[in-house]
Amino acid sequence: MSLTITRPAVRNPGQDRGGAAAIGARPTLEVVGLKKSFGTVEVLKSVSLQVAKSEMVFVLGRSGSGKSTMLRCCNRLEEPNSGDILLEGEKITGRGVNLDRLRRRIGMVFQSFNLYPHLDARGNVTLALRKVLKLSRDEADARAITALTRVGLADKAANYPSQLSGGQQQRVAIARAIALEPAVMLFDEPTSALDPELVGDVLGVMRELKQDGMTMLVVSHEMAFAREAADRVVFMADGEIVEEGPPEELFGNPQHERTRAFLARYSQ
Amino acid sequence: MTNLDRFIETFLNGSVLAKYTPSILQGVWVTIELSVLIVVAGTLWGALLACIRAYRIWPVSFLIVIYADIFRAVPPLVLILLVFFGLPSVGITLSSFAVLFVILGLTLGAFAEEIIWAGITATDKGQWEAARSTGLGFTQTLGYVVLPQAVRMVIPPLTNRAIAITKMTALGTVIGVPDILNQATTAQSFSGNASPLTLAALAYVVLFLPFVILSRWLESRFAWKKG
User: Taking every annotated instance into account, which residue ranges of this chain make up the domain ABC transmembrane type-1 (chain B) (predicted)?
Assistant: First the structure.
């Protein structure tokens, strides 16, 4: 009996994209054979995926395809039934993992923003800095202002979420996540709850994060943005990855019938 | 003597009022002391139990629910009499003040636990997820994120209940706590005149009206912050 760990045959994205990561470099985030069922419903059927350092990977798929569940398994807000998640080569699934230590290295942005309504924008950003990273109030404030400046909202530091537009709230939520300087950011339909005219601001921030080298895994329906900004696009259906590739290939010449059907529906 | 004169003589008798006002003022202090102690201890106790229940350790939660249900079901007067007259038989003697404080504090605690628990369960699940996703632990999330929102949400029912329970300090009269009502009934029986009871009613209004107004202020203040 050998103890060799068999890896599924997933291409290293860095090899294709030439530049994002060196050949053979360890992916920042690696999902290996992830399975998840809710009761008798199998939501994820052995999903494997890699995100290289500084890569932006978009996950597309109809609602119910398992893409959000997959994303939520990556920081274990959802507990997978089997399979592994590796963060910078370190296994973060299974027992004995300190979830709180792990989660500060994985930023997450939610569809419904989930800002703390009783704290102002600065308080939203500094809470984890002070209570998790144990920074002093001054250090935390300085880092919060830096993060809010990156999302273009330094002047809104003293505003409560109820005094901000949806787009501003989502940008504060992004600031809250990036202030912890995570190794990877997960975006769970970050623009789905926004009025169309506010979507652009959030996507603009995401574009800048990418330019600054942030590693990102994004579940979203923003096709145009995916086409323009993503390094790689993954299409999921019924709990499986049906097709993946660079955006120009996946959008321009989809190989799979289900991908074509999905793209036809959404590009109307 | 006209009807009006008789009315004034009975309920607003100047000489009786002058004579017994000092003792009723003493009663006011006792009622204030008790009320503050009951509100502070009862609310904190209820909040503590609601937080413990949030950990969902079922035997512990079960005990908390049993406690809350019993204290919400039994009239406080029954418990006051039971403890005050029963405990000395088993060798525990508590002052009437202490008995009143403990029973009403526990009663408010039972209601406060249920009310704050309702606030905790009504707090959006996304708040938990957002906080935990930044690395905050369960206890930190509860303390810094969920509880502040839960308490804001339940301030109206909580203040209503606190007012209702603190008014029950008048029950202390039956076990001899020298509160407002006790002083007034004593004065009433000595003087044979109802004016001290009028004064007592007035004292309760003066005492509890600011409390009621404060609760309205709290409600509007926190309603505004949430937007």
Answer: 28-215
Which is nearest to A28 in space by CA: A99, A87, A72, A70?
A: A87
Residues facing residue A84 across a β-bridge: A32
Nearest-angstrom CA–CA distance, A154 and A152:
6
**CATH entry, A29-264, from 3.40.50.300, 3.40.50.261, 3.40.50.1010, 3.30.70.270:** 3.40.50.300
* B116-159 residue pLDDT tens: 999 999 999 999 999 999 999 999 999 999 999 999 999 989 99
Q: Please judge whether A100 and B144 are an interchain contact, meaning their C-beta atoms are less than 8 angstroms apart.
A: no
Quote the pTM value. Answer: 0.87
Domain B19-222 sits in CATH 2.40.420.20: no
Instruction: Tell me the average confidence (pLDDT) per consecutive run of 10 residues in chain A, 268 residues long.
Output: 44 42 74 94 94 96 92 94 93 89 94 96 97 96 97 96 96 97 96 92 95 96 92 95 94 92 81
Contact yes or no for A30/A83 (Cβ under 8 A): no
Residues pairing with A49 in the sheet: A31
ipTM of predicted complex: 0.87
Which among B64, B63, B94 has a CA at the least distance from the CA of B80? B94
Domain boundaries, chain B: 19-222
A115: Cβ contacts below 8 Å, ≥ 6 apart: A121, A124, A161, A169, A172, A173, A176, B130
Nearest CA in chain A to B129: A77
Contact A12, A52 (CB under 8 A): yes
Candidates A118, A132, A177; nearest CB to B148: A118
Cβ <8 Å between B134 and A176: yes
Q: Which of B124, B127, B128, B133 to mutate to test the interface with A (most CBs of A within 10 A)?
A: B133
B53-106 pLDDT tens trace: 999 999 999 999 999 999 999 999 999 999 999 999 999 889 999 999 999 999
Q: Measure in Å the smallest separation between the Cα of B214 and chain A Cα atoms.
A: 20
